[in-house]
């Protein structure tokens, strides 16, 4: 701690100044300046020691403060990373949902367009006299029935070995184009 100068030192210094001016010399008396110089020297020494102490304390506590700041920084970094990851996940979810909705709408539009196209092609084919898909389905069903009938007849012929099937003559059907 810095010690204050005593009044006696300052009064001695002022009396020394007045004595030195009376004597006509330009220098102050060495015994009067000595206590003031010692007080300034002691004060400067104390200030220097206080500075050294502060520097030492800053070094000792500085590393602890630095470590505490690093720990706090790591904690803050983790919090910001988790917050950023949450925001990214939220944005990804929203974009995925939006993409799914857009895909569903586009698929619906394509299905409608496809249906319209198929209907128009079917109408055009019908006007040209081409068989429709329903006609082909009916034909396939009729062929399946005929196959079943043929298989049944083949099974009956194979079951009766002694009888030979009579040769049937196919009689042609009369159509409008055939003369009678």
Write a concise keyword list for the protein shown above.
mainly alpha, rod-shaped, 180 residues
Question: In short, what is this structure?
Answer:
It is built from three helices and no strands.
Q: Could you characterize what this model shows?
A:
The protein is mostly helical. It has a domain at 34-153. It contains three helices and no strands. The protein has helices spanning 7-23, 30-128, 133-159. Helix 1 (7-23) crosses helix 2 (30-128). It is rod-shaped. Mean pLDDT is 78; it is low at 7-13 and 18-26.
What gyration radius follows from the Cα positions, in whole Å? 59 Å
Q: Cα distance, first to last residue?
A: 146 Å
Query: How would you spell out the order of helices and strands?
Result: HHH
Number of helices: 3
Helix content: over 70%
Beta strand %: under 5%
Category by helix and strand content: mainly alpha
* Sheet of most strands: none
What is the averaged pLDDT score? 78
Number of strands: 0
Ranges with pLDDT <50 over ≥5 residues?
7-13, 18-26
- Shape, principal axes of CA atoms: rod-shaped
């Amino acid at each position: 701690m810095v010690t204050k100068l005593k009044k006696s030192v300052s009064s001695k210094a002022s009396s020394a100044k007045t004595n030195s001016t009376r004597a006509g010399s330009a220098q102050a008396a060495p015994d009067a300046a000595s206590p003031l110089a010692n007080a300034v020297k002691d004060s400067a020494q104390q200030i220097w020691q206080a500075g050294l102490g502060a520097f030492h304390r800053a070094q000792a506590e500085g590393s602890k403060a630095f470590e505490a700041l690093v720990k706090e920084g790591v904690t803050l970094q983790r919090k910001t990373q988790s917050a950023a990851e949450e925001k990214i996940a939220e944005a990804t979810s929203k974009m995925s949902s939006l993409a799914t909705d857009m895909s569903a709408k586009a698929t619906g539009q394509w299905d409608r367009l496809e249906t319209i196209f198929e209907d128009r092609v079917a109408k055009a084919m019908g006007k040209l006299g081409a068989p429709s898909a329903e006609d082909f389905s009916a034909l396939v069903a009729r062929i399946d029935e005929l196959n079943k009938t043929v298989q049944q007849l083949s099974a009956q012929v194979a079951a009766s070995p002694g009888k030979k099937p009579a040769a049937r003559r196919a009689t042609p059907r009369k159509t409008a184009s055939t003369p009678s």
